[in-house]
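Data availability excerpt. The first of two example chains:
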Amino acid sequence: MKKLLVPTDFSEEAENALKVAAQLAKKYGSEIFLTHLLELPLSQVDALSHHSELPEAVFFMKLAHKKFEEVLAKDYLDGITVHETVDFNQSFSGIADTAKQNHVDLIVMGSHGASGFKEMFIGSNTEKVVRTSEVPVLVIKNEHKNFDINNIVFASDFKNDNKETYRQASELAKAFNAKLHLLMVNTASNFTTTAKANARILDFINGYDFKNYTINIYNDENVEKGILNFSHIIDADLIGISTHGRQGIAHFLNGSISEDLVNHAKRPVITFKI
């Protein structure tokens, strides 16, 4: 976890993510790439790349730099190497390119605390990053004074095409010295017996030497509710889920979410690309 990327629009949500990234950086000796997405019309982007003195473009660059200076002066970044970058990609999908160019290990980004899984991942900026990122994306929904991770839920259907995500999740659990709670949610429309589910999970993790885990089969109305309810019961610090590239996470979510569950969904979520 040597290189962390934090996209920022200088909002409170983005700062919550940066504070978590700063705690991780201090713990693991990481450097942070703080990236501001500057939405400019294409003509102005061209102007900037040709070092033109187009007033609006220069104004926005100066404004971004001023905001960077304010952020970099924060106490919680003391002693951390922070690289500031401005991305003219005009979209959050450009974050994945920035991550690739800088060999980033983890993207840490903020999201609105009041929204549920659906709002967080469908059609949002978060979804755009999650869908295009090759590296895990840690989504922070509120402020964490002490970002201590002791219990991680890893929700999966435990089909063999997801094995790479388990490797990533177990590496993360090792880094945090955390217990990994392997979770398969059973629903009426997609029911598997406990014996079959257990066998599938054991087969899935076969060949990995990670031992600090529990196996859990949980019944609920839909997968989303199952993940949130189980995470609430064990008071998980982090929820990990796999994502299917272009399909994003939409395949995971069928059914609406009650207000109570939305509050539980304020836990941080980390996504692993299959």
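And the second chain:
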Amino acid sequence: MKLRLGISPCPNDTFIFDALLHQKIDTEGLEFDVLFADVEQLNKWAYKSTLDVTKLSFNAFSHCVSSYVLLDSGSALGRNCGPILIKKPSNKLNLDSKIAIPGKNTTANLLLSIAYPEYCNKVEMLFSEIENQILLGNIDAGLIIHENRFTYQQKGLKKVKDLGTFWEKETTLPLPLGGIGVRRVFPYEIQKKVERVLRRSVQYALKNKESSLEFVMHHAQEMEKDVIGAHIALYVNKYSISLGQVGRKAIQLLLRKAGVKTDHTFFISS
């Protein structure tokens, strides 16, 4: 059976999907046609049910719960891994400040709305452009994600607030950023097969970290090996293998804060 799969080119995604996509593990007869796209594009496709299996922000998932169910494996969820609001040291922020966000459907934007509901002058842009747009003076501040967490200080930019730290202080729970959804139209047996295969791929990646390096570096925005390694170490962890009770509790809380009201279950049943 062939499924359409969407993931981002970010190191944590390419790292965990490498074994699955390159037949380094038993895929139980499943094949995948993969599309690479920025997470906000993946979110938009998820709203249209474009892909059979997809990475998506948990904020986006809150709007398409009726179409997708979350896999227990493959999530980006953890501690000290949240989006960071940054600016030039000389910039003063106020209610009129222009804030760049990596997409209105991202979990990063949801967290910004929770932490700073007064900031309404938001500008959407590709996450990799935000640092330079601040430096050029086109925006007053920006919300960075992914590998930009590791590069903004080198460019002379200053942290305003780490929204991951904010979430952890408010909830004591790890921060849910994004997960892998499979369409609800598929039979339970297919959904569970995808979940098993992805977990196998994550486990293979963690046990054979050098195996995916060429694939990861080919797609990475930031090519420095140490930055890529730090990115993977931050976003791929025990919750990527299995959400567990704590991970599920964190996701459920975030979805409640996003205003989700539904009779649908969020996760594939055991």
